[in-house]
Design a protein that fits this description.
Layout lengths: L20 E6 L3 H11 L6 E7 L3 H11 L4 E2 L2 H7 L4 E4 L6 H10 L3 E5 L6 H13 L4 E4 L6 H11 L6 E9 L21 H4 L1 H10 L4 E9 L11 E8 L3 E7 L6 E8 L3 E5 L4 E5 L9 H29 L8 H16 L7 H18 L13
Parallel strand pairs: 1-2, 1-4, 2-3, 4-5, 5-6, 7-10
Antiparallel strand pairs: 7-11, 8-9, 9-10, 11-12, 12-13
Helix pairs in contact: 4-5, 5-11, 8-11
């Protein structure tokens, strides 16, 4: 029994899946075998993986043996025709998402899609409109946006505690992982090259928090790393709306993985460390004059330390107790939200309007940096 609904707040959900969701997985690369399949197989009371699909026979055989799923297909169309699926989990490179989604929609099958939904806004618009017209779910997996600390930050924002956002700053940095050092990795074929693999995470966070329509996007890229097949590995982007300035930074030359978010509002400044799951709230500074200002700054520093320690203690307890898995927490949350949407008609938390804003930012960014000529850099002398 398939769900027939749109992920829109203004449209009613009319039919829901009451039995475990029957799922097919297409694309058996790292994200599927290291993250999606291990999580989904633990959700047996909510969904059942009935089939796997990949054009690479070796990958298909390995995944089938590893996860005990015997119904396998090299041909995606054949799987859609032979299996009575409620939903497809698409874990293929972004350039393939549009045709795979459209084929699923034509068979009245809902789609889970790894970020980014598409590599350009025209394709995203088409997929979202087709899903709506057929009353089907299009669930984009933006896991970094839905780790617990960002859900807390989103609650502060949505409840008005932050006030009107003035600036949003997202920083995401990491060293190159082993797969990406392979010049034949699919990520190097993305718009923006390897930056196109990381940029959807901060771009989506920006899209969720910046107010209003995007007026302008400015991007600068730089090459610093040793890998010649990475044209650029450093990126700075400024996003402007009528009321908010957003910025995102990406680095592939960091000694460690790190993502931080600053939300500066009219009522509150919120700092988020997405890796340690720390959230710090900075209230407005009162009109404090010397000699009391130094004391005030010291007190505020203690307040900062207590909040960080509290967050780190909470995270440590969850890690030790096995209740917090940093690498997969966002995926776990969103997969459960997909099931809620399919079984109960709940609203899926990734807003596809924000997905379109994210893709607009990415498309504008990569369109700019592909015109940058590093050999024509000009030295400004003062």
């Amino acid at each position: 029994m398939k769900i027939l609904f749109t992920v829109s707040e203004i449209e009613k959900k009319v039919e829901y899946i009451m039995e475990p969701v029957k799922l097919g997985v297409v694309g058996l690369g790292a994200i599927a075998t290291h993250t999606h399949l291990p999580i989904l197989l633990k959700m047996k009371d909510k969904l059942r993986i009935v089939a796997l699909c990949d054009t690479d026979e070796e990958r298909l055989g390995k995944a089938s043996a590893q996860f005990g799923i015997n119904r396998v297909y090299k041909d995606y169309d054949e799987m859609l025709k032979k299996e009575m699926l409620d939903c497809i989990d698409i874990c293929t490179p972004p350039s393939t998402h549009k045709p795979l989604c459209l084929k699923a929609f034509n068979m009245n099958v809902n789609c889970i899609v790894e970020k980014p939904l598409t590599t350009n806004l025209a394709e995203a618009d088409e997929l979202i409109e087709v899903a709506k017209s057929k009353n089907l779910g299009l669930f984009v997996i933006h896991n970094s946006s839905f780790v617990p600390v960002l859900r807390k930050a989103r609650h502060l924002f949505n409840s008005g505690q932050i006030g009107d956002l003035i600036q949003v700053d997202v920083k995401f940095a990491m060293p190159p992982w082993e797969d990406i050092k392979n010049p034949n990795h699919w990520a190097h074929k993305l718009p923006g090259g390897v930056l196109g693999e990381l940029a959807p995470h901060p771009a989506m966070i920006l899209s969720e928090f910046i107010n209003g329509e995007i007026i302008e996007v400015k991007a600068e890229a730089l090459k610093r790393g040793p890998y010649p097949f990475m044209e650029y590995d450093e990126l700075k982007v400024l996003v402007k709306t009528s009321t908010t300035l957003g910025a995102m930074s990406i680095s592939f030359n960091s000694p460690m993985r790190k993502m931080t978010i600053d939300l500066m509002g009219s009522k509150l400044w919120v700092y988020v460390d997405a890796d340690s799951q720390a959230l710090v709230k900075y209230p407005p500074i009162t009109n404090v004059k010397e000699p009391f200002y130094s004391l005030y700054r010291g007190t505020r520093s203690l307040y900062d330390i207590f909040q960080r320690c509290g967050s780190l203690f909470e995270t440590s307890v969850k890690v030790i107790g096995g209740k917090w898995k940093p690498a997969t927490e966002g995926h776990i949350y969103l997969f459960n939200e997909v099931v809620k949407a399919l079984r109960k008609g709940a609203l899926y938390p990734v807003d596809n309007n924000n997905v379109k804003k994210e893709i607009l930012i990415l498309e504008a960014t990569f369109d700019q940096i592909k015109h940058v000529k590093t050999n024509n850099d000009t030295v400004l002398r003062i």
